[in-house]
Design goal:
This protein is of the alpha+beta class. It folds into 3 domains: 98 residues, Efflux pump adaptor protein, beta barrel domain (Elongation Factor Tu (Ef-tu), domain 3); 61 residues, OB fold (Dihydrolipoamide Acetyltransferase, E2P), CATH 2.40.50.100; 120 residues, no CATH class. Helices cover 44% and strands 26% of the residues. It is built from 6 helices and 11 strands. α2 runs antiparallel to α5 and α3 packs antiparallel against α4. The protein is rod-shaped. The two termini are 58 Å apart.
């Protein structure tokens, strides 16, 4: 009987020791490990045309991987190309006008103006001689040899020759001085307007091609050839596969146990037994209520902080929205020493 009691006591002590050891191990494990729950997240791009025009071609399908700079779709440019050609022709013509004004008068034009001046001077001299002859004849004959009308016509011819000489002289002065600065500035401004119009049309022609801004995957193809595109209507939804992160939440008591850059292991149900390497990239400075989609041991109404745990996925196996668990190896904060 005593032997049975002794054996039972030994078994009881062994059980107590085992339970105590198990609890200590669990406590130590809880003290050195932290588990967060969330889902896989990534960046998305809604891609649309800058122009409002009919779509001519869509060149990719859902699921296609595209590279930065790749042509994805294009618009009909049948009306835009003639407008650009017209604007470029107007700019070219105006450029020649500006060059002519900047160069001033040609030597041949100045020489022609000088020749016209000499001709006008000769005409004036001849008109004056004719007038003097008619005037002298009229004075000598007391108006009997010539008519007064002939004298008046000769005087008028002198006045006409003088006026023509003044005009020709001004023409020569203008030819020597060249165009006015205001005229040059006016035509230069008109040239800039034509060039700006051509530049806008070139940009519109360039915007008629929809180019991939980054390396991504076509998530959704939203429009088809023949539809009218506009800046407000996306044509594609792109998923940027790098970087990816787990959007998780941590309670305030555990907030002091983590820091940016801390390594982490990520586990998803689709790949049982595998762990993806990652690190903490962002800790929100603002508290919020726990989202309903996140399962935690705390109450859903408790305040938590968002944590982004970036994950390495070179094979692109993780998908948007996958539930994920994040395992962190942490240490409890040592109690602060009290001032005695």
């Amino acid at each position: 009987m005593k032997r049975r009691f002794l054996i039972g006591g030994l078994i009881a002590v062994s059980l107590i020791v085992a339970v105590t050891a198990w609890r200590l191990m669990q406590r130590d494990s809880a003290a050195t490990h932290l588990t967060l729950y969330g889902d896989i997240d990534l960046r998305q791009v809604q891609l649309s045309f800058n122009n409002s025009e009919r779509i001519a071609a869509v060149l990719v399908q859902e699921g296609d991987r595209v590279r930065q700079g790749q042509l994805l779709a294009r618009l009909d440019t049948a009306r835009l190309e003639p407008q650009l050609a017209q604007a470029e022709a107007q700019a070219a013509a105006q450029l020649q006008i500006v060059k002519r004004l900047r160069s001033g008068s040609r030597p041949e034009e100045i020489a022609q103006a000088r020749a016209n001046l000499q001709a006008a001077q000769a005409d004036l001299a001849n008109a004056r001689q004719q007038y003097e002859r008619w005037k002298s004849a009229a004075e000598i004959s007391a108006g009997r040899a010539v008519r007064q009308q002939d004298v008046d016509n000769a005087r008028t011819a002198v006045q006409v020759a003088e006026a023509r000489l003044a005009v020709v002289q001004k023409t020569l002065d203008l030819a020597i001085a060249g165009p006015r600065l205001e005229e040059i500035n006016e035509n230069e401004a008109r040239l800039k307007a034509f060039e700006a119009q051509a530049s806008v049309l070139r940009q519109q022609l360039k915007d008629a091609q929809l180019i991939a801004p980054v390396d991504a995957v076509i998530r959704t193809r939203l429009m088809e050839p023949g539809e009218m595109a506009s800046p407000q209507r996306p044509v594609f939804s792109l998923a940027i596969t790098d970087p990816k992160w787990v959007r998780a939440f941590i309670s305030e008591p555990d907030l002091g146990k983590i820091k940016p850059g801390m390594p982490a292991a990520i586990v998803v149900d689709s790949f049982a037994g595998r762990r993806f390497d990652g690190w903490i990239g962002f800790i929100s400075p603002v508290a919020e209520f726990t989202p309903k989609t996140v399962q935690t041991e705390e109450l859903r109404t408790s305040l938590v902080y968002e944590v982004r745990v970036f994950v390495k996925d070179p094979a692109d196996e993780l998908r948007l929205g996958m539930p994920a668990s994040v395992y962190l190896q942490v240490k409890d904060r040592e109690p602060e020493a009290r001032n005695e």
